[in-house]
Amino acid sequence: MEARAPMPCACAERVAGGADAADTCAVIVAGGSGERFGDPRGKQFVELAGLPLMCWSVMAFDRAPSVARIVIVCAPERSAEVERDVLSRLTLAKPVELAPSGPTRQDSVRSGLERVPRDLPLVAVHDAARPLVEVEQIEEVVGVVRADASLAGAILATRSVDTLKLVEGTTIVATPDRSFYWAAQTPQVFRTARLVAAHKTAVRDEYQGTDDASLVERLGGRVRVVESTRDNIKVTVPEDLAIAEAALGRRLLC
Ligand code: CTP
Ligand code: MG
């Protein structure tokens, strides 16, 4: 399938993008090795609907009216590939900068944060492995943080649909009330200063979280969930690619 790189300036979202100035820096983390996916190219570079997978999230953030600039975090030895196979194939309206990834996702986010201008009050951290994120979702999460000064951040998440079991070894020890459980996704949007401080403290405490919200929460920051769709999957194992391809195909037909 031939790649379709939309002209951002012709986008409905941009035209409709209202009164709020672009006040958000996107940090898209694409520096993982994709071990569970298993493709030697790395899952962020495999083809999805005619483009390297990571292109789809970069395009979504480029089209989001709240986003002023984009930082892509990738392995330093793959930055030429990102320039050639991602950036030069897209017509992007926002300034894009590359930052070197680290050994863990948390290190990669911290590296990306170093490139975030401190005069941009909000930062939106996103997994490059979530190609199905929609402009409207980005705008909703940013809007929630903007609208409530008591929030340190907000994240996309889905309600747990499965009954959850607390298991020790292979024995169930509890069945918690699933209505209290949500599955965290990205983007996760924070006040820039709060996320930078949370990462600094995590380094000091040698704390490794599995997402950015957990770093902010442990400092007492209030973080809200914004209900997402199950479409916004993280491509993790090879079967996920077919799911993403089908969802993107449906969307492109609309
Ligand atoms: N990521 C990153 N730097 C790392 C590890 C992960 O930038 N050191 C990014 C991945 O590229 C991905 C996102 O964080 O976009 C979510 O991570 P995950 O889905 O776990 O991707 P990988 O770490 O690449 O996959 P795996 O855990 O299977 O190796
Ligand atoms: Mg990983």
UniProtKB/TrEMBL annotation:
One of its GO terms (biological process) is isopentenyl diphosphate biosynthetic process, methylerythritol 4-phosphate pathway. One of its GO terms (molecular function) is 2-C-methyl-D-erythritol 4-phosphate cytidylyltransferase activity. It comes from the Bacteria. InterPro entries: IspD (IPR001228), IspD/TarI (IPR034683), IspD/TarI_cytidylyltransf_bact (IPR050088), Nucleotide-diphossugar_trans (IPR029044). Gene3D superfamilies: Spore Coat Polysaccharide Biosynthesis Protein SpsA, Chain A. The record marks R36, K43 as: Transition state stabilizer. It holds the Pfam family IspD. SUPFAM superfamilies: Nucleotide-diphospho-sugar transferases (SSF53448). Pathway: Isoprenoid biosynthesis; isopentenyl diphosphate biosynthesis via DXP pathway; isopentenyl diphosphate from 1-deoxy-D-xylulose 5-phosphate: step 2/6. The keyword Phosphoprotein does not apply. It catalyses: 2-C-methyl-D-erythritol 4-phosphate + CTP + H(+) = 4-CDP-2-C-methyl-D-erythritol + diphosphate. The record marks R178, K234 as: Positions MEP for the nucleophilic attack. The keyword Glycoprotein does not apply. Keywords: Isoprene biosynthesis, Nucleotidyltransferase, Transferase. Its EC number is 2.7.7.60. Catalyzes the formation of 4-diphosphocytidyl-2-C-methyl-D-erythritol from CTP and 2-C-methyl-D-erythritol 4-phosphate (MEP). NCBIfam families: ispD (TIGR00453). Belongs to the IspD/TarI cytidylyltransferase family. IspD subfamily. This is 2-C-methyl-D-erythritol 4-phosphate cytidylyltransferase. It comes from Candidatus Olsenella pullistercoris.
